[in-house]
């Protein structure tokens, strides 16, 4: 697998600024770039990246998206007087020109293309370009919203043309709608554009009807434009992550892109004067992480907005550190999405249902059923409420994200004797103290003298301890009896007072009963048959209609259920168990492992069962390889509950979009938490 993260930056791009008074444009300052770059240097992140020089985009590059007339007009700006520049600027909305902006705009687009080249040729795995001016608002023949050339749109066309790739995903997490990108690709099924944006029922800039959830793309491109309008300010981490789990990721996995481009604007973070949202800078670690499992990790992040310098540089650091592979910080205090976010979520899912099989079972409610507009009006004056929201968002304070320390050992393996440890991993075995070993022998081996089994168990407990101490990030153990190994880990975790352990077990292995009643462990089990006798609060059995061999069904269950559950549970350890005969293919297993590494600071322990020596090498290979595919899906249970009674959204009843099964889990949840 390709390694390395590219960083593109050139201080030439700080060399233009607003030359007259304009309250709208005054937030777009050169410091946005210097502050972000200095923060990367100070955190030691820039040094860990591969620095790639920027270049100017050529006319041919720019003409991939823009008209000749527009390019020629912009070309004249370096020679204009101040007065001419002001007049030129007036043709467009919310943008300013400067004698050096044409040069910078060529560098911004060129830097983006250099990043695409570095990723596509395999020089690096992923990367980020710190650029100014931003791009996502600029259109074929118009500058707009501080943007001159559409850096990311140009990059998408360039990548398709130069490398012959079939599908590009553009994720626009900037708080504004990148209408320029939408217009560029709205009839093109080879580029999937996703954008969430402050909208407030069209009351927020750029005030376009085209930004609403029902603009899904045109003609052949229908279904390939995904808009998530935020109709309230103050959206939080849970709102962002819910939209990722329930809208973007299911569609993105079904789309299966060859390359992911991110319109990485950070005005969607807390403290931003434009966005007025409340997501913390470390949410970008998770957003980045969740996208890194697509397209074999080929991800290019390109700076767009971000106008609070503090929140901007913190968010940039979170993004780059995640691209470098450091484990994401623990997501704190996640709840479900708020009512307004839920409304948007639900509307997007309904609007896209005809186009994506992963949404086949999305509830089809009338918009009036989920509208929060009415609630707002009756709650005593929309204006007053809005004023309050704005004030609270502005005065928002947040603490600096904690330092993210990458453990010295990334992956430790507990292997049977004679199995060679693959490169890049560390073989782990423990010299546990005799009293502990004896205890393990008594408990698990009934005093039998199976020394192999005993070594494995004591290594396992020692490994968990090292993860707790953050000396090792994750681990994999090949064991002869996964049930026994699982119980051993659970028991150790309990004795060591680990706060919460999430166990995801694929297959019908016997699971521990211990610890599963008080919420210290949460067990999600993909099994072929649901055992009615095993109804325990923290044991969630999942039956996939077509079993785990149905990759798309499995993936959708992971994205829509396991992941949100995991985020809300916030474990300190994730235990992944693959029992024999699970039917799960290697690609799906790889995905599960990858996605869940966003939890528990990446502390994932994988247990796999091997009986014969011959199986061992194959198991190791599958753990290290990476691929996936798609077909249809659904859960047996969701279907059952959907036909029984369609739930309605109200403040009492949980959201319909989680589906019957998720609904049930969430109820169990609340009971435990409250
Ligand atoms: C609304 C004015 C918006 C344009 C913002 C462009 C952001 C580009 N208060 N002005 S990321
Ligand atoms: Zn923006």
Structure explained in plain terms:
- The chain is α/β, with parallel strands linked by helices.
- It is built from 23 helices and 16 strands.
- The strands form 2 sheets. It has an 8-stranded parallel β-sheet with strand order 2-1-3-8-7-4-5-6, sandwiched between helices.
- The longest helix has 20 residues, at 101-120.
- The two termini are 45 Å apart.
- The model is unreliable at 618-674 (pLDDT under 50).
Bound molecules: 5-[(3-aminopropyl)amino]pentane-1-thiol, zinc ion
Global Rg: 26 Å
Biggest sheet, open or closed, and with what strands and sense?
A: 8 strands, parallel
Alpha-carbon distance between the termini? 45 Å
Strand content: 5-15%
Low-confidence stretches: 618-674
Major β-sheet strand ordering: 2-1-3-8-7-4-5-6
**Average pLDDT for all residues:** 86
- What overall geometry do the principal axes of the alpha carbons give? elongated
Query: Number of DSSP strands?
Result: 16
The helicity comes to 25-40%
Number of helices: 23
Helix-and-strand structural type: alpha/beta
InterPro entries: HDACs, His_deacetylse_dom, His_deacetylse_dom_sf, Ureohydrolase_dom_sf
Region (Disordered): 376-403
Protein name: Histone deacetylase 10
GO molecular function: deacetylase activity; hydrolase activity
């Amino acid at each position: 697998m390709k390694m390395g993260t590219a960083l593109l930056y050139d201080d030439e791009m700080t060399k233009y600024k607003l030359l007259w008074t304009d309250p709208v444009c005054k937030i777009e300052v050169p410091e946005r770039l210097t502050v972000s770059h200095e923060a990367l240097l100070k955190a030691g992140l820039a040094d860990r990246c591969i620095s790639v020089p920027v270049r100017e985009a050529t006319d041919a590059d720019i003409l991939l998206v823009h008209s000749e007339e527009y390019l020629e007009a912009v070309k004249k700006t370096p020679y204009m007087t101040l007065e001419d520049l002001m007049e030129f600027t007036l043709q467009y909305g919310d943008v300013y020109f400067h004698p050096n902006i044409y040069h910078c705009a060529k560098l911004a687009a060129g830097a983006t293309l250099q990043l695409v080249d570095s990723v596509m040729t395999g020089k690096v795995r992923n990367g980020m370009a710190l650029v100014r001016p931003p791009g996502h608002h600029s259109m074929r023949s118009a500058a707009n919203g501080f943007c001159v050339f559409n850096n990311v749109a140009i990059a998408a066309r360039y990548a398709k043309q130069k490398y012959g790739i079939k599908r590009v995903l553009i994720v626009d997490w900037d708080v504004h709608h990148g209408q320029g990108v939408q217009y560029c690709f709205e009839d093109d099924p080879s580029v999937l554009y996703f954008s969430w944006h402050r909208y407030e029922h069209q009351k927020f800039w750029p005030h376009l009807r085209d930004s609403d959830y029902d603009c899904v793309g045109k003609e052949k491109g229908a279904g390939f434009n995904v808009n998530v309008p935020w109709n309230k300010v103050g959206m939080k981490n849970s709102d962002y992550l819910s939209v990722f789990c329930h809208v973007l990721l299911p569609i993105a996995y079904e789309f299966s892109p060859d390359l992911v481009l991110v319109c990485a604007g950070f005005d969607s973070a807390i403290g931003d004067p434009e966005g007025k949202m409340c997501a913390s800078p470390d949410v970008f670690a998770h957003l980045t992480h969740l996208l890194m499992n697509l397209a074999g990790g080929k991800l290019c992040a390109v700076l767009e907005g971000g106008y609070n310098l503090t929140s901007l540089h913190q968010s940039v650091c979170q993004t780059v550190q995640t691209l470098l592979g450091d484990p994401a910080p623990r997501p704190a205090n996640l709840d479900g999405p708020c009512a307004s976010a839920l409304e948007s979520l639900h509307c997007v899912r309904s609007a896209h249902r005809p186009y994506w099989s992963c949404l086949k079972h999305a509830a089809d409610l009338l918009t009036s059923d989920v509208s929060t507009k009415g609630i707002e009006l009756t709650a005593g004056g929309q204006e007053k409420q809005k004023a309050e929201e704005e004030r609270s968002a502005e005065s928002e304070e947040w603490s600096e994200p904690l330092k993210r320390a990458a453990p010295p050992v990334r992956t430790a393996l507990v292997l049977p004797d004679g199995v060679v440890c693959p490169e890049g991993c560390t073989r782990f075995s423990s010299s546990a103290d005799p009293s502990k070993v004896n205890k393990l022998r008594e408990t698990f081996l009934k005093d039998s003298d199976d020394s192999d089994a005993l070594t494995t168990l004591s290594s396992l407990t020692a490994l968990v301890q090292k993860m707790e101490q953050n000396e090792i990030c994750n681990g994999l153990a090949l064991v002869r009896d996964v049930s026994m190994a699982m119980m051993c880990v659970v028991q150790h975790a309990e004795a060591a007072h680990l706060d919460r352990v999430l166990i995801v077990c694929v297959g019908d292995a016997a699971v521990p009963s211990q610890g599963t009643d008080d919420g210290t462990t949460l067990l999600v089990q993909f099994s072929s048959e649901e055992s009615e006798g095993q109804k325990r609060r923290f044991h969630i059995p999942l039956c996939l209609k077509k079993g785990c061999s149905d990759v798309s069904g499995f993936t959708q269950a992971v994205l829509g259920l396991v992941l949100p559950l995991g985020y809300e549970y916030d474990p300190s350890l994730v235990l992944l168990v693959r029992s024999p005969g699970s039917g799960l293919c290697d690609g799906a297993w790889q995905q599960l492992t990858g996605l869940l590494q966003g939890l528990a600071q990446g502390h994932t322990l994988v247990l796999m069962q091997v009986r014969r020596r011959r199986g061992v090498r194959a198991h190791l290979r599958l753990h290290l390889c990476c691929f996936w595919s798609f077909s249809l899906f659904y859960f047996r249970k969701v279907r059952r509950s959907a036909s029984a009674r369609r739930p309605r959204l109200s403040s009492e009843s949980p959201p319909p979009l989680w589906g019957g099964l998720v609904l049930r889990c969430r109820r169990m949840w609340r009971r435990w938490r409250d």
